[in-house]
Amino acid sequence: MSTESDTTWRRPSVYITDMVPNGIYDRGHKPEPMKFEGFTKYLTHHDDHTTSKGPKRKKQKQASALRIMSELGSESNAHGLAKIATSVTTKRKVLWSLLVIIGFTAATMQLSLLVSKFLAYQVVEVSQMKEGMPVEFPSVTLCNIATISLTKVNELIIRNETDIMSWFTFIKNAKFGEHTDRMDSHQAFYENLPEVGKAIGHSIDNFVISCRFNTKPCSSANFTLYFDGKNYYNCFTFNSGYDEVKKEPKEQKLLMHTTGPQNGLSVILSLENDNPPAGAYGLYDVKNHIAFSGGVRAQVHAPNTMPSPADHGFDVPPGYSTSVGLKAVLHARLPNPHGNCTYNHLEGDRSYRNTIFSCLQLCKQRILVHWCGCKTAALPMYKETDPKKQNLPFCGAIKNWRNTEAYLNKSRVDIDTLKCEEDLLNNLNNDRSYENKCNCFQPCDETSYQKSISLSYWPLEFYQLDALRNLYQNNTITSSLIKEVREKMDNLQSRFDQYLLENRREEYNQTDLDTLIRASTVVRQNLIRLNIYLEDLSVVEFKQMPAYELADLFADIGGTLGLWMGISVLTIMELVELLIRVTMLLFDSESSTVNSSLDVGDTKESQSMLNINHDNSISNKYNHFQYDKPFFHQPIARTAESPI
């Protein structure tokens, strides 16, 4: 039995052996003492916080951020970024970096072009055929090309209730220089005698002697007066689309479900040609290209739009049956930002639906009022220039013209406002820059009508007498010429009816033939038949559509990014993930810094527990790792983690 002195038990040290790369224990290496990294962490934690926590945490944060970016870069769908992240050599990294920069530059340039194309808001116009729907019948404006009614002029002269002869005497004797042609016109007559001008215009009862629409009779109540102070005076519009009683557009539209002349508008018009006063002749103006002819000026336009027969109408000659076949065309335009169409109405003498032409005409009138302080009958009126208010004079009006003697001694009658009007309108007609200040735009929804016109000889001589009897059976014949030929033809027919009763066979003599020729000429010079109808219920719609929409922009952006950089929406989500993780890393680091003081107390407590004397019984009790035998279990790292 050995003594305690020579048999003293010593605690052997436990060593961690070096491991070769293949994980097999190498007995040739000298074992190193075991390092409990867990204990070391607790023993040095307090010193790290007190001495080098700032720089160390900053480096750790940077390393973590780089690690996150490297990880996402290697996994990214953007091929260039993945190549940069996974490349081992520097040359390969530089090469792929240059390629990524070139691709990014090209993609940026192409994307800027795509955005510019989108912001241009270009449009394309497509056409489509609409069928199986009723078509709105248009407005039809009719004007007698002969501005004044000679029948009414004769009546006024006979009653001596007008200044017509005084005006003719004045313009005949006064000298107007370069304004002579203008003062001889119907426009000058109206501007100086506005009430007389309206009175001598044609009336609807004498103008329209027969009317039928859609196989049903119509009357003068279906027509609305429109006054043209320059060319035609009294014009009449069928289906104007405006309620004169309520002073607002009509809610009920005139819709058509059938085609053909029998189902449209058919009117027989009388031109009221009459014998002029004895020795009187009209004044012909070679500069006027639409007047001094016989017939009717007709215009087909959308309901509740301002008529402009002189600019957009067509002539209908007397002595013929004129057929006008219509086909509706719809225009649908885009408002801002793709276009500049408008839904606004025009405020003329009343409210009209907007058309670009009428808006510009009203704008010219406003410019004239602004610069010359007067208005003109050649342009449509608006509320401030309403002749009934008499607030503004006409530019061609001559003060005290009835005092003819005051102007006879003058070598020339100067009209400054008339000169201002002519110069200004001439400039506006030759320079369209004024349109930029008018704020006139195309309507967003507009209806127009394509026309096909045909004519036939009408009425045949064989039917003329019976035509006069039917047309004027309920109407008083105001034209002396029509009344004259009607009486002569009735007398001639009565005489031959008597021959038939007496069973006598007679032939026309020369006087009878002259009477028939004269009657046929007068009838055909005074009567017109006009048929306006829909020849097709199919409606052609021209519709504007965006040429490059937002969906197209997104598709092209995706194609551009995929072509140059291999980027898709999922790649963008990867970038979002990177930003989120870096942000979380930043906030996590700040939170750890704030709470670091709480860890110091725990560290001291742990250190005090570990600083207990290792020679006492407690330390010896738990020091069961100290054995002098090799450790042949699974290979462990050089720095072992403490099991505590």
From TrEMBL:
Family, per entry: Belongs to the amiloride-sensitive sodium channel (TC 1.A.6) family.
Organism: Dreissena polymorpha (Zebra mussel)
Transmembrane segments: 94-115
Localization of this protein: Membrane
GO molecular function: ligand-gated sodium channel activity
Transmembrane helix recorded as keyword: yes
Major subcellular site: membrane
Keywords per UniProt: Ion channel, Ion transport, Membrane, Sodium, Sodium channel, Sodium transport, Transmembrane, Transmembrane helix, Transport
Taxonomic lineage: Eukaryota, Metazoa, Spiralia, Lophotrochozoa, Mollusca
Pfam short name (any one): ASC
Membrane topology of this protein: Multi-pass membrane protein
GO cellular component: plasma membrane
Name of the protein in question: FMRFamide-activated amiloride-sensitive sodium channel
